[in-house]
């Protein structure tokens, strides 16, 4: 498939076998954790369908003016993949392997990574590539150090426009039916700022650790109520399908 746009000749071709993918180290120790946290809550909320591809530092490629271009955003969400997964282990080509990304994210670090680069010559800058070549609807630039988040949306002229947050300091991603925002707290031995998802009702999409804490709290509350009703530890254990020792320990801690 060939597309000519603004004097660009763009072809959607499989990455050549001889093409050497960059093997650069991650710029910041926090970046993989931020990306993993974004993906985990989506998965646990059953919002990653079988056709969806969620990527982290994974090559998304195109052939621009007869030269192969590969960019690996820190996080990306591709809504519909049509190629067999075995065919996209190394890289992904929009339109050839499925839809273009709906959203790409770059996490800032102390080392400048060209997140705002509109350089059109080879190799093109990230901004230019996402906006003009891939035409990704949403581009997010996040600075974990100061909780700065910028969300750009492609307008009718195929140009990125900075979006304003709502009253809760969140951004609505219509196609995902989710809000994106910044949350501060602890995860993966890191206290800091995280990108997180909220549903249309404003409920936070939880991580696994939070779901486990929530479940434990509910069990503890149920045990307390049954004990307060006069049931014995054995009876409570039977009612809630818990080991009696667990109920006794909860009883003692209260």
Short descriptors:
254 residues; alpha+beta; tt1808, chain A; 2 domains; six-stranded mixed sheet; four-stranded antiparallel sheet; 5 helices; elongated
- What's the overall geometry? elongated
Helix content: 10-25%
Helix/strand/pairing category: alpha+beta
Radius of gyration: 23 Å
Mean pLDDT: 92
CATH topology of the largest domain: tt1808, chain A
* Widest sheet, order of strands: 3-6-7-8-9-10
CATH domain class name of the largest domain: Alpha Beta
Sheet with the most strands, sense and barrel status: 6 strands, mixed
Low-pLDDT segments: none
Number of domains: 2
Distance between the termini: 67 Å
**Content of β-strand:** 25-35%
Number of helices: 5
Q: Tell me the total number of β-strands.
A: 13
Order of helices and strands: EEHEEEEEHEEEEEEHHH
Structure report:
The strands form three sheets. The protein has a six-stranded mixed beta sheet. Helices cover 24% and strands 27% of the residues. The radius of gyration is 23 Å and the shape is elongated. It folds into two domains: 204 residues, tt1808, chain A, CATH 3.90.1570; 43 residues. Helix 3 packs across helix 4 and helix 4 packs across helix 5. The protein starts with a strand and ends with a helix. It has 254 residues and is α+β, with helices and mostly antiparallel strands.
